[in-house]
Amino acid sequence: MARWSSEHLVAAARRTGVSDPALLEALRVVHRSAFVPPEYADAANEDRPVPIPHGQVTTQPSLSAGMIEALRLTGTERVLEIGTGYGYQTALLSRLAYLVTSVERWPDLAARARENLAAEDVTNVEVVVGDGTEGAADSAPYEAVLVSAAYPEVPPPLVEQMRPGGRLVQPIGPGGAEEVTVFRRTPEGLDAGRPVIPARFVRLRGHFGYR
């Protein structure tokens, strides 16, 4: 039996400063238990990462919430997510955006995420397999980009695929000790960005990331 309800995740997000009512409601109604390996289902409403295959972990829900809130979504945006995992963060984004394109480098994780999202009747999401550092040009341009892995700089293709005025959130650092940073796309490129929260993430791997 689950130890807590989703209200535990709502409370954890509030403690980190998340206040967007639509985002808090998404945390309330999206069943995290549907987006973790079966052996972790009973602990799904604990505010902590969960291991998934290939040495990856899911993002801590309150941290996902803080990153999503920094995008300032209004419901009209096309969002690019880098790192699908089992699809929980993708499902949260789907309730706050018009369309979500999520790129996952591991085919088996992408397949599991598609199954999880379909089982929860999430229909405004496309999960594609590919190199996340190259983005997903076929569905560009995007008003928002969320990167769920760490690298010292933003991969250039992600900037190129954004609309002017759009926002990008990424953990900036070497992997293991980062500052989650929000950037804004300008006609000249990205602004200097501002830190949102310190965190620990796996490394961003790909042609424009770690090899």
Give the helix/strand layout:
Layout: H1 7-15, H2 21-29, E1 51-52, E2 56-57, H3 61-70, E3 78-82, H4 88-94, E4 99-104, H5 107-119, E5 125-129, E6 142-147, H6 156-160, E7 162-172, E8 178-186, E9 189-190, E10 194-199
Parallel strand pairs: 3-4, 3-6, 4-5, 6-7
Antiparallel strand pairs: 1-2, 7-8, 8-9, 8-10
Question: Care to describe what's here?
Answer:
The protein is α/β, with parallel strands linked by helices. It is 25% helix and 26% strand. It is built from 6 helices and 10 strands. Strands 3, 4, 5, 6, 7, 8, 9 and 10 form an 8-stranded mixed beta sheet that branches. The chain has a two-stranded antiparallel sheet with strand order 1-2. Strand 8 and strand 9 (189-190) form a beta hairpin. It is globular.
Which descriptors would you attach to this protein?
211 residues; 10 strands; alpha/beta; globular; two-stranded antiparallel ribbon; 26% strand; single chain; eight-stranded mixed beta sheet
Number of DSSP helical runs:
6
Oligomer: single chain
Report the count of strand segments.
10
How far do the termini sit from each other? 42 Å
